[in-house]
Design goal:
597 residues; 3 domains; ABC transporter ATP-binding protein; 22 helices; Rossmann fold; membrane; ABC1_TM_sf; transmembrane; six-stranded mixed beta sheet
Length: 597
C-alpha cells in the first residue's frame, strides 16, 4: 500500500502535492486570500476616484455624484474626499491583515513541513542514509523548505492580486468601453497568460537542476567541514578548494541557464502590455473625442491599465519564485513520500520484564545490491549471560548488531527476544531494551551531563554521577573546566577518544537496558584506558545479557561463550580455554595478538 501511494503521489504536480499536504491550513489560506482580494479591489479604487473627480469638473451638476442629489460641486468633492479616506483606511487594514496572515501561513507550513520531513527521515531505514548524502538531506530540510516559505510569504499573494486586478479591469472595460475597443485593449492578455505557462514549463526542469546542484554543493561542504582535520593533515586544502569550485561552478552554470530564460520574461510582458495600452490610448481617446464615452471613464481606464502594467511586469518575478518553490517542493515531498521499510510491530515490550534471551534462527541477510553477508546463521544467547563474537573484518559481526536493533530486517529467518519475533515488537520498546556502546561514539554538542543522560532524559543528577563513576569517567570529568556542565563540542571533539568512550558507557549505565551490546568498544583506546573500560564493563555486565563484538581478544576472554565468525557463518564456539585447546581459527588469532607466533 505504501509503495502504491508513493507511485500515485509522484504522478501529481508539486503544487497538487503541496495543496494536499496543506489541507489543514485551508481556513487560514482562504482568509488570507480574501483579504488579498479586498486589498486589491480597494487598491484599484483611486483611478475610479480620479475619474469621478474629472467627471465632477467636466459635468458639474450632471456628474455621477450629482445623480444622488448632491448638486453643489464643493459638497461633491467633500463626499469624494470622505469616500477616499474610508477606502484608504480599509485598504491599509486589509494590507495589514493579508500580510500578517500570509506570513503566518508561511511560517506554520515551513515549521510543520520541516518537522514532518525530519520525523519521517528519522524513521527511514539505515540503507536510505547509505544511499543519500548528509549535505543533500540538509539542503532539503533547510534550503528547499526556506525556498517554499519565501514564495508563500509574498508570491501567493502577488498571484491573487494580479488575477483580481485583471478581472476588475476586464469587467470595468466591458462595462464602460465599446466592445471593439475593449477587445483591442484585452487582445494581449491571452498571449500574456499563454506565454506565462510556456515559461513555467521551460523553467521547471531548469530549477529542478538548480536544486539538485545546490544539494551536491551542500554535500561537498558538509563533508569537508566534517573532515577538516584530515584535509589539514594531508595538506589537501588546494585540492578541496578545486573540488568545491567545481561543484560551485556547476551550481552557477545551472542558475545562469535559468536566469537567462527568466530574465527575458519581463521585457516580453512589457511589450505585450504596451500593445494593449497603446490600443486603449488611441481607440479610447478617439471614442472620448467623439463622445462615445466620457472623459472621466477614459481617464479611469488609462490609469487602470497603467496600474496593471506593474503587477504584470512583476508577474515574471512571481513565476520565477513559483518555479523555484515548486522545484524545492518536489524534493521535500519526495522525501515525505519515501516509504518506510522498517515498520514497528504492534506488540508492546515492557523493558523491566525483559529477561534478555536472544535467538538468531536460520538468519540470512544481504545489504541492498550486494552479496549475502549472513548465511543461515543460528545463535542462542541465554538470558543474563555474556557472549562474544570475533572474526576477521567483513565476517559479519557488526551486522548481527544492526539486525538485532532492526536497523535492517533479515532477508530470511527470525530473531527473537524472550521467544518473541522482534518484528512483532514495538520498535521503540525493542530499542529501549538494548544498550549499544560502539567504537564510533557520537556525542552531541552540549554538556557532559546532557550526553550521559541522552536517551534517558529524566535521569537525575545523582544517577548521572553514579553512572560516570561506574564508567570510571567521574575523575576526568571533574578535572574539566566546568565539570559535568562542560560543553563537549560538536561530536565531542573537545574530549579524547577514551574519554568519549567512557561517557558512552556511562550513557548505557544510565539507560540500564536488559540487553547490552559492546561493538568494538575498546578497539580505539590506549592500554590504560582499555583497562579502565574493562573494569567498568565487568561491573555493568553482571546479570545482564551482553553481546560483545571484539577485535581485541583479551577483552572477551572471560565471556561465557565465544563465537568465531567467518564469511557470515559461525565456525567455532566455546569458552576461551576450550577454543585454545581446539587449536582452530580462534587459537590462531590469539597467538597472533599475544605475540606467540
Amino acid at each position: 500500500m505504501t509503495s502504491t501511494f508513493h507511485h500515485v503521489s509522484n504522478k501529481l504536480s508539486p503544487l497538487q502535492r503541496l495543496l494536499n499536504y496543506g489541507q489543514k491550513y485551508r481556513g487560514q489560506i482562504y482568509q488570507a486570500s480574501t483579504y488579498s482580494v479586498i486589498n486589491t479591489t480597494l487598491d484599484i479604487a483611486p483611478p475610479w476616484l480620479v475619474g469621478i473627480a474629472v467627471d465632477i469638473l467636466v459635468q458639474q451638476q450632471s456628474s455621477i455624484i450629482a445623480k444622488f442629489g448632491i448638486k453643489e460641486v464643493v459638497w461633491q468633492f467633500a463626499l469624494l474626499s470622505l469616500i477616499t479616506i474610508i477606502i484608504w483606511v480599509f485598504e491599509s487594514l486589509s494590507q495589514y491583515a493579508y500580510d500578517r496572515l500570509w506570513r503566518n501561513v508561511a511560517q506554520n507550513i515551513q515549521h510543520n513541513l520541516r518537522l514532518d520531513a525530519y520525523n519521517h527521515l528519522q524513521q527511514l531505514e539505515s540503507a536510505y542514509f547509505e544511499d543519500s548524502s548528509t549535505g543533500g538531506l540538509m539542503s532539503i530540510l533547510s534550503d528547499d523548505i526556506n525556498q517554499l516559505e519565501d514564495f508563500l510569504n509574498g508570491g501567493a499573494n502577488e498571484v491573487i492580486q494580479v488575477t483580481t486586478s485583471l478581472m476588475i479591469l476586464v469587467i470595468g472595460a466591458f462595462c464602460i468601453l465599446p466592445i471593439n475597443i475593449t477587445l483591442a485593449a484585452m487582445l494581449p492578455m491571452p498571449f500574456i497568460l499563454w506565454g506565462s505557462l510556456i515559461y513555467q514549463k521551460r523553467l521547471e526542469p531548469l530549477y529542478a537542476n538548480v536544486r539538485e546542484k545546490v544539494g551536491f554543493l551542500n554535500s561537498r561542504l558538509a563533508n569537508n567541514i566534517s573532515g577538516i582535520t584530515t584535509i589539514k593533515s594531508f595538506t589537501a586544502e588546494n585540492y578541496e578548494n578545486a573540488r568545491l569550485a567545481e561543484e560551485s561552478e556547476a551550481y552557477r552554470k545551472s542558475n545562469t541557464k535559468a536566469i537567462k530564460l527568466s530574465a527575458a520574461f519581463v521585457p516580453l510582458i512589457r511589450m505585450l502590455v504596451l500593445a494593449g495600452f497603446t490600443a486603449l490610448l488611441f481607440l479610447g481617446g478617439m471614442a472620448a473625442y467623439s463622445q462615445k464615452i466620457s472623459i472621466g471613464n477614459y481617464s479611469v481606464l488609462l490609469v487602470l491599465v497603467q496600474r496593471l502594467l506593474w503587477p504584470l511586469v512583476f508577474l515574471g518575478e512571481t513565476f520565477d519564485h513559483y518555479q523555484r518553490a515548486m522545484a524545492s517542493t518536489k524534493r521535500v515531498m519526495d522525501l515525505l513520500d519515501t516509504p518506510i521499510q522498517i515498520t514497528t510491530g504492534d506488540m508492546p515490550l515492557i523493558v523491566e520484564q525483559v529477561r534478555g534471551e536472544v535467538d538468531f534462527k536460520n538468519v540470512t541477510f544481504a545489504y541492498r545490491n550486494s552479496a549475502t553477508i549472513i548465511k543461515d546463521l543460528s545463535l542462542h544467547i541465554p538470558a543474563g549471560k555474556t557472549i562474544a563474537v570475533v572474526g576477521s573484518t567483513g565476517s559479519g559481526k557488526s551486522t548481527l548488531v544492526k539486525l538485532l536493533l532492526r536497523f535492517y530486517d533479515v532477508s530470511s529467518g527470525a530473531i527473537t527476544i524472550d521467544g518473541i519475533d522482534i518484528q512483532k515488537l514495538n520498535l521503540s520498546d525493542l530499542r529501549r531494551s538494548i544498550g549499544l556502546v560502539s567504537q564510533d561514539v557520537f556525542l552531541f554538542h552540549g554538556t557532559v551531563a546532557e550526553n550521559i543522560a541522552y536517551g534517558t532524559f529524566d535521569a537525575t543528577e545523582e544517577a548521572i554521577i553514579n553512572a560516570a563513576k561506574v564508567a570510571e569517567a567521574h575523575d576526568f570529568i571533574m578535572r574539566l573546566p566546568q565539570g559535568y556542565e562542560t560543553i563537549v563540542g560538536e561530536r565531542g571533539q573537545k574530549l579524547s577518544g577514551g574519554q568519549r568512550q567512557r561517557i558512552a558507557i556511562a550513557r548505557a549505565v544510565v539507560k540500564n537496558p536488559p540487553i547490552l551490546i559492546l561493538d568494538e568498544a575498546t578497539s580505539a583506546v590506549d592500554n590504560e584506558t582499555e583497562a579502565a573500560i574493562q573494569r567498568s564493563l565487568e561491573k555493568i555486565t553482571v546479570n545482564r545479557t551482553t553481546i560483545a563484538i571484539a577485535h581485541r581478544l583479551s577483552t572477551i576472554r572471560n565471556a561465557d561463550c565465544i563465537y568465531v565468525m567467518e564469511s557470515g557463518q559461525l565456525v567455532e564456539s566455546a569458552t576461551h580455554e576450550e577454543l585454545l585447546e581446539k587449536n582452530g581459527i580462534y587459537a590462531s588469532l590469539w597467538r597472533v595478538q599475544s605475540g606467540l607466533r
